[in-house]
């Protein structure tokens, strides 16, 4: 009855009626607590006559198993029933049900090794399955059994324990290889022979068996090498060579299922070769001649790249990748280098030439075209890359690897020889006496193809081939970066820039030329930047042609200009004029499809131009605000790219402002410029935040603006707040109204992202102390409370804001209720987060405990009640932890003077509170008092060191000059640093994994947060020494009587505070 009910409910989950689906889902959830529930699902997925019901049951069982695996063990009965079901079900159900099996395998077979009979039983099943045992009475399906085997091996494709530098082969994998994989090699050989002997329609089951077995071998050798499998690899690879040689790339075979599986097997074969060359050199070195011979035939099919579908092209791509991997080895280089010319001419370059696919993709999906062929950031050329996927990308990577490899020593005279001899003067690394293949082979080969001109601008063969030449130039960045700047300049001047002067431009070539200039920006001399920049600016303003969109040309030009200005200061001088910006604003105002990119580029240009364009920033911002304002509809929806550009410009203006007393003659210009910027930014924020409510006559009051670009809006608001100095400015700029909306926005902030949140935290620090309006304070408080439970940097920033909010503003009597509300919210949020990590002392203890400390100093009784409500003895838990981090024994203890001062003041109040309790916590009292003494000494020492640092500042500055000279001398020795070995690399990463697991790894951003000085406001004026001495004077008899204090602590404390000798005489 239960199984039938579940089957009916599963059918109802497929209903188009949402209410029916929800009701059925709730009912299934209630039934899921029954022990028989997973067995019922399994029964339905294998025995139901309704295919949809079978799939639904398998899907529910998959999700149910995944959810319950972490918290409960799977019974042996269910495991066995699941495996039996997997061996019988049809392929559609198998594909879903095997996901549940994988979850169990990962938890119980791989991690815990609790399934000892699985491998022997699976071996017996495979031996008696339908395709292997031809008796005809087999109840098991071979394909299903091999699918189970694949799921069993899959987790072992990766190293399982990153904390071990050289992880041994897992015993489970050794057992699988010995008992199942090696015996199946004979079956694999027979299946290959049978598959290759068939010239008509292929046997789908045979082809599927070959594919699954190749996947199993790939997972087995991708990271490890089972000892039982190693001796058989040579014979196995010979079978793979036969499979690869049987593939056709000329369209002679139809796309029936059998041949599709053959192609997938070929792809997996190449992945196996990549793994062998990468991970198992001792075995692969013997196979390299045959591997190279096989893949060299495949890559020559790049001639048909325009006619290849995705999978055949992926195979060609992988063949290029195999060659790249082989080239990174010594034996491989000796094998491949004699064939460089042939590879370049018959395989690599044909993959680069423009074809029908390129023009079609340009017209149908320009974004995808640029992503594939004009990437904004080309990764470093390497033989070990794994994510190229297209034949062209793999060919470009291989071309880069070839160009960087060294040829034989160059003798004699000539241009190449002179370049080489000049370059050797500053070289210190071995092998620099040999020219690279980029100089000896690649560039001479590319120079054979004529550059298009007005006369031959539209000859298809010339255009298509030169497209390939430009692609090739873009891949030579690493090679060209090692040449003299003049070398690259000549190449660009002679082979790239003339394309921009053709009277009838060719968009396909110009987009590629833009990309090349962007990739080679770091290699170009500054004197060439003017010509390059002018050419790119021409491409940036290029209009669409009659039948061709020039969108990729404009976008790639924007990207190239960005690269150019980031590496070349001279280029930014071209920005030093308003006509340029008028042209720019005209393009943005057109609301074209590349507007977003133009905004990003404008921000980058201003940021790179820095002081060269600083005086134009007020004009730029006011013009940009006018443009953006026209595009903001009467709804609260800002325009994110525009806001981001404005935030960058405001920051650049702030960074370029002269220090007080500097450039007095231009101070009026800076003052008026700042006023212009502030008015413009306030106007924009009013339109984006306030105008919608006004238009709807107050009806939109409960409706908040969407949180789009709140980070950039916060940066703009912060700039405005920094500039406000008079009360009338607050009214004119509508500061209070803007802050109200902003506070509501961040109070409901849920899109936590470190890079975006920083602007909000910075804005909070700028808003206080002038603002104490309750609604604004409470909005900020809600944001801070939520920040405690986010990523580590947010926790540090939230703690910093707690001190700022509680101690810096001057709260009126009316606003004191707001501060008390903040104390309640902050203490609860910080202590709750502390409770989650209290079992593992770490650096995050400090910000959380100090945040509670700030709250406690404001309202001790309130905080004590909050702590006791959150956890029994919560006050004692917090006080004990605070005493621990205040002692020298805590690894992540207090470091700054402000932290120590906050700790001393808090511990003094805690000690006094403990003394006043009717039931004294003797151990806690002693612990807190000892930490108070130790923290007081540390604070006194820190204050003394600060005074010493101020006096020695001048001496340090003088010493810096000498240090700089030493640094310059050391720079020349950088090249002599040896490369890290594989063993050292693995050992370093193992140590990093251990540190990560122990929680001792600190992100770079987190380190910056930890080094911030706490803003303690009025607490800065409190004399903590008087507080401590007064406490000892009043309570020394209780504090010192009957307590065993360490003699060393007493001695150190009295040396620092000799006035306390009178009270400690009995302990001296």
From TrEMBL:
Q: Which GO terms describe its cellular component?
A: cytosol; nuclear envelope
Lineage, top-rank taxon, reads Eukaryota
Q: GO BP, one example?
A: protein export from nucleus
For the region Disordered, what residue ranges are annotated? 412-434, 939-984
What sections of the sequence does the record tag as coiled-coil?
A: none
PANTHER family linked to this entry: ARM REPEAT SUPERFAMILY PROTEIN (PTHR10997:SF29), IMPORTIN-7, 8, 11 (PTHR10997)
Name of the protein this chain belongs to: ARM repeat superfamily protein
Organism lineage reads as: Eukaryota, Viridiplantae, Streptophyta, Embryophyta, Tracheophyta
């Amino acid at each position: 009855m239960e199984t039938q009910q579940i089957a009916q409910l599963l059918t109802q989950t497929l209903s188009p009626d949402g209410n029916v689906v929800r009701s059925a889902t709730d009912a299934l959830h209630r039934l899921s607590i029954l022990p028989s529930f997973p067995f019922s699902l399994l029964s339905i997925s294998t025995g139901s006559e309704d295919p949809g019901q079978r799939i639904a049951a398998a899907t529910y069982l998959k999700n149910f198993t995944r959810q319950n695996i972490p918290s409960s063990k799977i019974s042996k009965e269910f495991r066995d029933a699941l495996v039996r079901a997997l061996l019988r079900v049809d392929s559609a159900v198998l594909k879903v049900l095997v996901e549940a099996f994988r979850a169990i395998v990962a938890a119980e077979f791989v991690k815990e090794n609790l399934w000892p009979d699985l491998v022997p039983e699976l071996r017996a099943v495979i031996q008696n399955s339908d395709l292997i045992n031809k008796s005809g009475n087999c109840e098991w399906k071979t394909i299903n059994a091999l699918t189970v085997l694949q799921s069993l091996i899959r987790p072992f494709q990766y190293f399982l324990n990153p904390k071990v530098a050289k992880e041994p082969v897992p015993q489970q994998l050794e057992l699988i290889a010995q008992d199942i994989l090696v015996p199946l090699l004979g079956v694999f050989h027979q299946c290959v022979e049978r598959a290759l002997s068939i010239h008509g329609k292929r046997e789908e089951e045979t082809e599927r068996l070959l594919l699954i077995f190749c996947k199993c071998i790939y997972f087995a050798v991708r990271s490890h090498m089972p000892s039982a499998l190693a001796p058989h690899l040579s014979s196995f690879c010979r079978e793979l060579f036969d499979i690869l040689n049987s593939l056709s790339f000329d369209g002679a075979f139809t796309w029936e299922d059998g041949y599709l599986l053959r192609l997938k097997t070929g792809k997996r074969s190449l992945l196996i070769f990549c793994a062998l060359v990468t991970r198992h050199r001792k075995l692969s070195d013997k196979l390299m001649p045959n591997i190279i011979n096989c893949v060299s035939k495949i890559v020559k099919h790049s001639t048909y790249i325009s006619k290849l579908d995705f999978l055949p092209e992926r195979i060609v791509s992988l063949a290029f990748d195999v060659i790249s991997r082989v080239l990174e080895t010594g034996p491989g280089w000796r094998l491949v280098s004699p064939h460089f010319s042939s590879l370049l001419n018959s395989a690599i370059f044909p993959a680069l030439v423009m074809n029908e696919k390129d023009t079609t993709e340009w017209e149908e999906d320009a974004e995808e075209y640029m992503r594939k062929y004009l990437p904004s950031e080309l990764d470093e050329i390497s033989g070990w890359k794994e994510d190229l996927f297209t034949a062209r990308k793999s060919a470009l990577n291989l071309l880069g690897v070839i160009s960087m490899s060294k040829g034989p020593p160059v003798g004699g005279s000539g241009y190449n020889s002179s370049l080489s001899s000049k370059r050797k003067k500053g070289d210190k690394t071995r092998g620099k006496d040999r020219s690279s293949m980029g100089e000896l082979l690649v560039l001479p080969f590319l120079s054979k193809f004529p550059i298009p001109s007005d006369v031959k601008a539209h000859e298809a063969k010339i255009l298509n081939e030169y497209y390939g030449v430009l692609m090739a130039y873009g891949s030579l960045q690493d090679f060209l970066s090692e040449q003299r700047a003049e070398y690259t300049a000549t190449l660009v001047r002679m082979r790239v820039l003339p394309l921009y002067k053709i009277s009838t431009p060719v968009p396909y070539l110009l987009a590629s030329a833009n990309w090349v200039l962007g990739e080679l920006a770091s290699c170009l001399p500054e004197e060439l930047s003017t010509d390059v920049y002018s050419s790119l600016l021409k491409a940036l303003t290029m209009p669409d042609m009659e039948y061709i969109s020039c969108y990729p040309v404009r976008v790639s030009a924007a990207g190239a200009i960005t690269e150019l200005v980031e590496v070349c200061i001279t280029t930014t001088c071209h920005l030093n004029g308003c006509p340029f910006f008028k042209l720019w604003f005209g393009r943005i105002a057109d609301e074209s499809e590349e507007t977003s990119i133009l905004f990003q580029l404008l921000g980058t240009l201003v940021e790179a131009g820095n002081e060269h364009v600083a005086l134009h920033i007020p004009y730029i911002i006011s013009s940009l605000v006018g443009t953006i304002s026209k595009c903001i509809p009467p709804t609260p929806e800002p325009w994110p790219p525009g806001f981001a550009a404005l935030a960058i410009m405001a920051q650049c203006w702030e960074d370029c402002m002269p220090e007080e007393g500097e450039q007095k003659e231009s101070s009026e210009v800076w003052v008026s410029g700042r006023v212009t910027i502030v008015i413009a930014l306030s106007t924009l924020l009013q339109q984006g935040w306030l105008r919608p409510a006004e238009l709807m006559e107050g009806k939109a009051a409960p409706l908040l603006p969407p949180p789009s670009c709140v980070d950039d809006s916060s940066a703009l608001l912060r700039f405005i707040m920094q500039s406000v100095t008079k009360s009338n400015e607050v009214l004119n700029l509508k500061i209070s109204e803007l802050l109200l909306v902003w506070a509501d926005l961040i109070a409901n902030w849920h899109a936590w992202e470190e890079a975006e949140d920083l602007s909000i935290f910075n804005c909070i620090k700028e808003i206080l102390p002038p603002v104490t309006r309750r609604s604004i304070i409470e909005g900020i408080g809600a944001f801070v409370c939520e920040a405690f439970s986010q990523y580590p940097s947010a926790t540090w920033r939230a703690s910093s804001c707690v001190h700022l909010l509680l101690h810096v503003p001057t709260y009126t009597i009316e606003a004191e209720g707001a501060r008390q509300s903040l104390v309640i919210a902050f203490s609860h949020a910080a202590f709750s987060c502390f409770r989650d990590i209290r079992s593992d002392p770490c650096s995050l203890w400090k910000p959380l405990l100090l945040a509670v400390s700030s709250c406690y100093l404001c309202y001790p009784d309130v905080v004590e009640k909050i702590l006791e409500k959150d956890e029994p003895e919560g006050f004692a838990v917090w006080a004990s932890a605070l005493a621990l981090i205040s002692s020298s024994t805590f690894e992540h203890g207090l470091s700054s003077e402000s932290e120590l001062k906050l700790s001393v003041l808090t511990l003094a109040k805690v000690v006094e509170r403990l003394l006043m309790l009717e039931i004294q916590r003797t151990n806690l009292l002693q612990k807190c008092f000892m930490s108070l003494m130790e923290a007081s000494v540390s604070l006194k020492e820190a204050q003394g060191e600060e005074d010493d640092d101020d006096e020695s500042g001048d001496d340090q500055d003088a010493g810096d000059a000498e240090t700089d000279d030493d640094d310059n001398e050391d720079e020349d020795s950088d090249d002599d640093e040896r490369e890290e070995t594989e063993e050292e690399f693995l050992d370093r990463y193992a140590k990093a994994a251990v540190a990560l697991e122990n929680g001792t790894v600190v992100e770079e951003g987190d380190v910056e947060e930890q080094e911030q000085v706490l803003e303690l406001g009025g607490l800065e004026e409190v004399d903590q020494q008087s507080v401590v001495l007064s406490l000892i004077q009043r309570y020394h008899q209780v504090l010192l009587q009957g307590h065993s204090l360490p003699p060393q602590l007493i001695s150190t404390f009295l040396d620092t505070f000799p006035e306390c000798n009178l009270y400690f005489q009995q302990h001296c």
